[in-house]
């Protein structure tokens, strides 16, 4: 492959893109999709076991919120360093190490015997699961040209929906038949299946013997990649330097405001359906799965929208930002979820599902803005900084809104008011995030890390 590197680095951009789904880069996308599926399956299990754990450990809304905060805090702190670790170790080893550790953490929940123990287990799961998205975004940047990255990101990001679909269809059934502990063990073990496939199939493009020269050249057909097709040995970029760029802050604030909404769906949707409509046990499986089925469509569609604009001649960054504004508008109807639910529960499920789909479409695009604006050597680090911000946003929402508000309204028998307020927060978060991101990064500007920071 070294010979390929020497010849392809100076080659002109590929004239005929190799877009067939049989091409090797889409196999890599499938591996990242699988990892993301397992990642979200493992973190979603506890929300579906909440009714069983509430009985066994006598939890109230505040106890569950504290356990949720432990996960988010550890996830946020993990994001602070995991991007740098993955940039240092590379995607192959960094991704594998993260998956190995979070799989152990997921299985470890089965051996917990106290509320504090669950907080510790969730914290370990959070800090190790933090590696998935920095590694996934870096892998996508390594394996796809710029114009395909939003689509590839949307495809692998739909794994978060598939994991959330599989969870309600399997976890309550496992808990009902063989006990809640086995739900943690079985789902956690899937990570080891992924590890076997990862080490069998994965290598960076410069070392991948299965990769054809034509596809290698196409992957590196962007102008910015022409002289950097091989693994670089460029110096590290400090977090402090990355934080001097407005583009970093655009991504950070976008994640801070919108990630907590997804956390809310993931950890509180089963509780909402249970408390509002009296669903119990396996009855909750289909409506929860329906929400994430819709969100999976949104994830892939979120990658298709800007790609369609680009095919019409739009610049990639303009296509991305226009798509994100349209997506933000699609979230807003969630403010009417409860009113629609009074007519029929499935109308509430539908509008929440559309909002969840819009979140995933937003996520596919906001992640891609990082690889649009930053060189590959900094992608995992910037993604990690943004992921940390998203985690802290989730902590703020849980600590200042959900924990206090939900406990208060539950104590006076008016929990529906707490959910009403939350749905308004969900509806407005994306529009606010888009405005701030547009202010900080109004136009496409590729970052030169060796130049002075932008003003």
UniProtKB/TrEMBL annotation:
Q: Which UniProt keywords apply?
A: Membrane, Transmembrane, Transmembrane helix
Compartments (UniProt record): Membrane
All residue ranges annotated as the Major facilitator superfamily (MFS) profile domain in the record? 28-445
Membrane-spanning segments: 24-41, 93-112, 182-201, 249-269, 289-310, 322-340, 346-367, 379-401, 421-441
Pfam hit, one: MFS_1
Q: How does it sit in the membrane?
A: Multi-pass membrane protein
Q: Which InterPro entries match?
A: MFS (IPR011701), MFS_dom (IPR020846), MFS_Na/Anion_cotransporter (IPR050382), MFS_trans_sf (IPR036259)
- Identify the CDD domains for this entry: MFS_ExuT_GudP_like (cd17319)
Superkingdom, taxonomy of origin? Bacteria
Q: Does the keyword Transmembrane apply?
A: yes
- Specify the protein name: MFS transporter
Species of the source: Hymenobacter endophyticus
């Amino acid at each position: 492959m070294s010979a390929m590197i020497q010849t392809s680095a100076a080659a002109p951009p590929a004239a005929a893109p190799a877009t067939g789904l049989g091409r090797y880069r889409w196999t890599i996308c499938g591996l990242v999709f699988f990892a993301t599926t397992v990642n979200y399956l493992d973190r979603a299990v506890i929300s579906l076991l909440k009714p069983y754990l509430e009985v066994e450990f006598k939890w109230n809304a505040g106890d569950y919120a504290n356990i949720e905060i432990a996960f988010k805090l550890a996830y946020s702190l993990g994001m602070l360093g995991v991007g740098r670790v993955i940039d240092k170790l590379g995607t192959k080893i960094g991704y594998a190490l993260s998956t190995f550790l979070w799989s152990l953490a997921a299985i470890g929940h089965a051996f917990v015997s106290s509320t504090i123990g669950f907080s510790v287990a969730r914290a370990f799961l959070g800090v190790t699961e933090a590696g998935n998205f920095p590694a996934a975004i870096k892998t996508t940047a390594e394996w796809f040209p710029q114009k395909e990255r939003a689509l590839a990101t949307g495809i692998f990001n739909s794994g978060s929906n598939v994991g959330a679909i599989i969870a309600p269809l399997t976890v309550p059934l496992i808990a009902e038949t063989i006990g809640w502990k086995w739900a943690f063990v079985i789902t956690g073990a899937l990570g080891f299946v992924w590890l076997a496939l990862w080490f069998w199939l994965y290598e960076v493009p410069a070392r991948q013997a299965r990769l054809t020269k034509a596809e290698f050249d196409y992957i590196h057909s962007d102008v910015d990649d022409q002289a950097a097709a091989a693994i670089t040995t460029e110096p590290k970029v400090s977090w402090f330097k990355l934080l001097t760029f407005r583009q970093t802050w655009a991504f950070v604030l976008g994640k801070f405001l919108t990630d907590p909404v997804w956390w809310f769906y993931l950890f509180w949707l089963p509780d909402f359906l249970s408390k509002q409509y009296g669903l119990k046990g396996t009855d909750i499986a289909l409506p929860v799965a329906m929400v994430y089925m819709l969100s999976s469509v949104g994830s892939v569609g979120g990658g298709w929208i800007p790609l369609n604009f680009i095919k019409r001649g739009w610049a990639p960054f303009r296509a991305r930002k226009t798509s994100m504004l349209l997506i933000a508008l699609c979230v807003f109807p969630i403010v009417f979820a409860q009113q629609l639910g009074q007519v029929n529960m499935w109308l509430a499920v539908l509008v929440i599902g559309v909002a969840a789909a819009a979140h995933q479409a937003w996520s596919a695009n906001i992640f891609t803005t990082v690889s649009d604006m930053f060189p590959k050597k900094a992608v995992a680090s910037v993604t990690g900084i943004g992921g940390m911000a998203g985690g802290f946003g989730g902590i703020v929402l849980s600590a200042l809104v959900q924990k206090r508000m939900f406990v208060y309204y539950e104590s006076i028998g008016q929990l529906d008011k707490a959910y009403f307020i939350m749905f308004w927060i969900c509806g407005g978060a994306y529009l606010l995030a888009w405005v701030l991101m547009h202010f900080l990064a109004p136009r496409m500007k590729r970052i030169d890390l060796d130049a002075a920071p932008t003003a």
